């Protein structure tokens, strides 16, 4: 209100009673980058444009096939094609099936296999609340040829350039905290490696998101040579920005697709066995089982969201039972997981899903790809630090261009101390007092226009190894 008032009267001038405050940013907002059934431009969806959804209903509205106009029923969103091929002998790799005394292979046309739709279903089922979807294209045409038993599943319709353009579009969405590529394992090994390196570099540039990766070969691990897939994955992630990446192994056997969602429309090739009702039921059950083998990244995005909501971003997203998961493509032992959890050479830790008697399937690992780093070894530490950084950055925007003088320094210090006290009280920082948990330092370079703020924080670390010591004691009188 101007000071040079000339009209007699009573004037009200409000003063701000409370200083600016720092608010915790959201920590569980994934972006799913991949292929969708279609892109409904009439509803507002566009290719390579991040679109926020809060339910599968939103996804179907923007990207799903419309309902059948005659019946009003929703059209199937995913109809992969599987080929029934008669064999003379059991294959050296992969599976074969005996139907009415005849040996068959039942394998998909790789050009019809897509993962984003099912991964979103698992995300919401496991606690996800909202996500961005970046459609890089609609489903491509079938190749009319199945893969051979045991061969890698590479979809020729999945293009590295499409996924990279999808990543690029996320530079405008600073609220995204996770990058998910459900169809990345459908690329070749070399192209998947390029995608992972590109993604990690963008995560480091943005400083606000992590990438959750799946492992090629985890869909159908070789009983003896599965560790080669792990080695190949590690060799193709590069060496930069590893703390911004995390990987999970193996693929999951899920319950996403029910028996009524698998029909004879899914079967190609030799369809003669379908004429027998019992054999047809057996074939459709095999196809249903294969369709339900899915990468774990979508499940983990949901578990991250659930863990953050229930306990906080500083809680490790591990020792949690995934919903909608009935089995694993590889049952790991303690000795086998040892080589995944601790990589003595490159430090690229890979987290496992394990099956435990009496407890079921659990997420059994909480490390980033930077497993040898004392600073950024754990997912919860990396994500908590990112949350603190982004929350402080957002709060400090209010002080850009403010006078670089003691009052401003005091307000900034008080604001950040209040924020970090809240984080400490919630269990995100360790220490018996706030002074043990954090320190806020300001440094002024007034002539250059700089005000430097340093946050020293003691972030809570997970108990990765719990050791029980049992010692016999002599009986006392």
Walkthrough of the structure:
It is a single chain. With 477 residues, the protein is of the alpha/beta class. The chain folds into 2 domains: 282 residues, 3-Layer(aba) Sandwich (Rossmann fold); 76 residues. The protein has an 8-stranded mixed sheet with strand order 2-6-1-7-8-9-14-15, with helices on both faces. The relative contact order is 0.12. The model has no long low-confidence stretch (mean pLDDT 93).
What's the alpha carbon Rg, rounded to whole Å? 27 Å
Q: Total number of helical segments?
A: 11
Give the name of the CATH architecture of the largest domain. 3-Layer(aba) Sandwich
Shape: globular
Tell me about the largest β-sheet.
8 strands, mixed
Residue share in β-strands:
15-25%
Question: What's the helix-strand series?
Answer: EEHEEEHEHEHEHEEEHEHEHEEHHHEE
Count of discrete structural domains: 2
Number of strands: 17
Assign a percent range to the helix content. Answer: 25-40%
Task: State the low-pLDDT regions, or none.
Answer: none
Distance between the termini: 87 Å
Main-sheet strand order equals 2-6-1-7-8-9-14-15
Quick one: CATH class of the largest domain? Alpha Beta
Assembly category: single chain
Average pLDDT level: 93
Structural class: alpha/beta
